[in-house]
Design goal:
This protein is mostly helical. It is built from 9 helices and no strands. Helix 1 packs antiparallel against helix 3, helix 5 crosses helix 6 and helix 5 packs across helix 9. The radius of gyration is 21 Å and the shape is flat.
């Protein structure tokens, strides 16, 4: 890989993760769903179709972006194995932390609710899962369940990305298509 291919690979990974989170944030089914009119199977089919489409975006931009980064940048001077592994790991670290910081403002209210749960368990649970119209019952609409689950998963992903996503970086370095760097070198660089 060349330097510009590594930078393109990191940029595609960052954009892919951000695109997946944003697409699920604007999922059209949660606004369209009406419990009395829309059957649950139809809603499930729409969610599955949407997930498959978003899965293609994630696969080609995040997990299998070697060919796409090669097509975007073209040929160039190849790097040595040690230099390539170092640059790839450091570039992915910076890119993923940056992505986590971009997602942090949207995840801050959820993180505050999670932290509040440890101190005020009963009021926080009432606020999170109990419907205001029907007290003392675990009864949320589909939209509320989807939104709560989305925000919880987004908060977990944000914290993982801010921590540097070490397992993902290690996996991405091993599967970059260039096996010139040895596995112990990649392990050591990913753990630094």
């Amino acid at each position: 890989m060349t330097k510009i291919q590594i930078i393109a690979k990191t940029a595609l990974t960052v954009l892919g993760i951000y695109a997946v989170v944003t697409l699920y944030g604007v999922y059209p089914g949660r606004y369209v769903y009406q419990p009395d009119k829309t059957p649950i199977l139809q809603e499930f089919a729409l969610l599955c179709t949407f997930t498959i489409l978003v899965g293609f975006v994630a696969y080609f931009m995040v997990f299998d972006n070697n060919r796409l980064s090669g097509k975007l940048t073209g040929p160039g001077q190849l790097l040595e194995g040690q230099t390539q592994a170092t640059l790839l790991v450091k570039s992915l670290d910076v890119g993923l932390v940056f992505t986590g910081l971009m997602l942090l403002p949207g995840s801050a209210p959820t993180l505050v609710k999670i932290a509040k749960t440890f101190f005020l368990i009963r009021p926080a649970l009432n606020e999170i899962i109990i419907s205001r119209s029907t007290p003392n019952m675990l009864r949320l609409s589909y939209t509320q369940w989807y939104t709560s689950t989305y925000h919880l998963l987004k908060a977990v992903l944000t914290v993982y990305l801010i921590c540097g996503a070490p397992h993902f970086v290690r996996w991405q370095a091993k599967h970059s298509g260039q096996q010139t760097a040895s596995a112990p070198t990649i392990e050591r660089l990913a753990n630094e």
